[in-house]
Amino acid sequence: MQKLPLSSRFFVAGHRGMVGSAIVRKLQAEGYQHIETRTHAELDLTSQAAVQAFFKDNPVDYVVLAAAKVGGIHANNEYPADFIYENLMIECNVIHQAFAAGVKNLLLLGSSCIYPKLASQPMRESALLTGVLESTNEPYAVAKIAGIKLCESYNRQHGTNYRSVMPTNLYGPYDNYHPENSHVIPALIRRFHEAKQARAEEVVIWGTGNPMREFLHVDDMAAACLHVMNIDTETYQANTQPMLSHINVGTGTDVTIRELADLLAEIVGYEGKITFDSSKPDGAPRKLMNVERLAALGWQSRIGLKEGLQSAYAWYAEHLGREAIRL
């Protein structure tokens, strides 16, 4: 395993998000000091001219593309045009302008939603483009698939070293706790906390509670990203394929939404009734990642689900009312 020189210059796009901020923390903890970041106000990644100017003025060795428009089932249903347009524009601009500026190394962060709704479980990288996508987040998934293929195409045509990692469901510090646009873990943390504070008798959760989901703490994801970036080209290529170069990142285990809700209620200290509204959509029945490829490359997750959820709730409770938390 090689190690990127400490003199390496990074651009982490999306550093204020949950994943981007974790990657910045990990890079800093490893001793990297040359890390470029920009807020949306400072750099609009959907603007081709702005991204071109950024790379012209800020030479970097490695781009980590963690910026994305993300959200849960409700947000994806309500704003499909926003999700496909903004994510396509971010990927096209950053990947192409990085190439145009001579950046040879890039890491794209994708999502497990790229796989077909009824893909065999656990989902292997080879399941990509083998079936129909889950309808509730298809626009977002199509954009992420396009990002993977952009990286593969630039590698094939131009000899770049653009890699893609596909995380399972992530959670942790700096997650989005918006009541309608958040993912399941932050949504449940907020709802159980507020129900506990209000002494509510019941919390109603969308769906049947039967779908199974895999969850990875974002600090594990950041560690996996740096691990993938450090893999030498020969080893990486030996464990991937030119047209199948993305790598799954996950724990390899999953739980039902009902089990997750019960565990979070226990951690938060909510003792009321939990009811599932089966008239609301469930999403895909199961989304478990096959992580054999990453294991063969020397990495596996370390943070257990209960431990991770406890730390996530502690962070939420500590940061309530502060600017860092997105409500």
Automatic annotation (TrEMBL):
<protein>
    <recommendedName>
        <fullName>GDP-L-fucose synthase</fullName>
        <ecNumber>1.1.1.271</ecNumber>
    </recommendedName>
</protein>
<feature type="domain" description="NAD-dependent epimerase/dehydratase">
    <location>
        <begin position="11"/>
        <end position="231"/>
    </location>
</feature>
<feature type="site" description="Important for catalytic activity">
    <location>
        <position position="111"/>
    </location>
</feature>
<feature type="binding site">
    <location>
        <begin position="109"/>
        <end position="112"/>
    </location>
    <ligand>
        <name>NADP(+)</name>
    </ligand>
</feature>
<keyword id="KW-0521">NADP</keyword>
<keyword id="KW-0511">Multifunctional enzyme</keyword>
<keyword id="KW-0413">Isomerase</keyword>
<dbReference type="GO" id="GO:0042351">
    <property type="term" value="P:'de novo' GDP-L-fucose biosynthetic process"/>
</dbReference>
<dbReference type="InterPro" id="IPR001509">
    <property type="entry name" value="Epimerase_deHydtase"/>
</dbReference>
<feature type="binding site">
    <location>
        <begin position="14"/>
        <end position="20"/>
    </location>
    <ligand>
        <name>NADP(+)</name>
    </ligand>
</feature>
<feature type="site" description="Important for catalytic activity">
    <location>
        <position position="113"/>
    </location>
</feature>
<feature type="binding site">
    <location>
        <position position="183"/>
    </location>
    <ligand>
        <name>NADP(+)</name>
    </ligand>
</feature>
<dbReference type="Pfam" id="PF01370">
    <property type="entry name" value="Epimerase"/>
</dbReference>
<feature type="binding site">
    <location>
        <position position="282"/>
    </location>
    <ligand>
        <name>substrate</name>
    </ligand>
</feature>
<dbReference type="GO" id="GO:0050577">
    <property type="term" value="F:GDP-L-fucose synthase activity"/>
</dbReference>
<feature type="binding site">
    <location>
        <position position="191"/>
    </location>
    <ligand>
        <name>substrate</name>
    </ligand>
</feature>
<dbReference type="GO" id="GO:0016853">
    <property type="term" value="F:isomerase activity"/>
</dbReference>
<feature type="binding site">
    <location>
        <begin position="167"/>
        <end position="170"/>
    </location>
    <ligand>
        <name>NADP(+)</name>
    </ligand>
</feature>
<feature type="binding site">
    <location>
        <position position="213"/>
    </location>
    <ligand>
        <name>substrate</name>
    </ligand>
</feature>
<dbReference type="GO" id="GO:0070401">
    <property type="term" value="F:NADP+ binding"/>
</dbReference>
<comment type="function">
    <text>Catalyzes the two-step NADP-dependent conversion of GDP-4-dehydro-6-deoxy-D-mannose to GDP-fucose, involving an epimerase and a reductase reaction.</text>
</comment>
<comment type="pathway">
    <text>Nucleotide-sugar biosynthesis; GDP-L-fucose biosynthesis via de novo pathway; GDP-L-fucose from GDP-alpha-D-mannose: step 2/2.</text>
</comment>
<feature type="active site" description="Proton donor/acceptor">
    <location>
        <position position="140"/>
    </location>
</feature>
<dbReference type="InterPro" id="IPR028614">
    <property type="entry name" value="GDP_fucose/colitose_synth"/>
</dbReference>
<dbReference type="InterPro" id="IPR036291">
    <property type="entry name" value="NAD(P)-bd_dom_sf"/>
</dbReference>
<feature type="binding site">
    <location>
        <position position="206"/>
    </location>
    <ligand>
        <name>substrate</name>
    </ligand>
</feature>
<comment type="similarity">
    <text>Belongs to the NAD(P)-dependent epimerase/dehydratase family. Fucose synthase subfamily.</text>
</comment>
<keyword id="KW-0560">Oxidoreductase</keyword>
<feature type="binding site">
    <location>
        <position position="144"/>
    </location>
    <ligand>
        <name>NADP(+)</name>
    </ligand>
</feature>
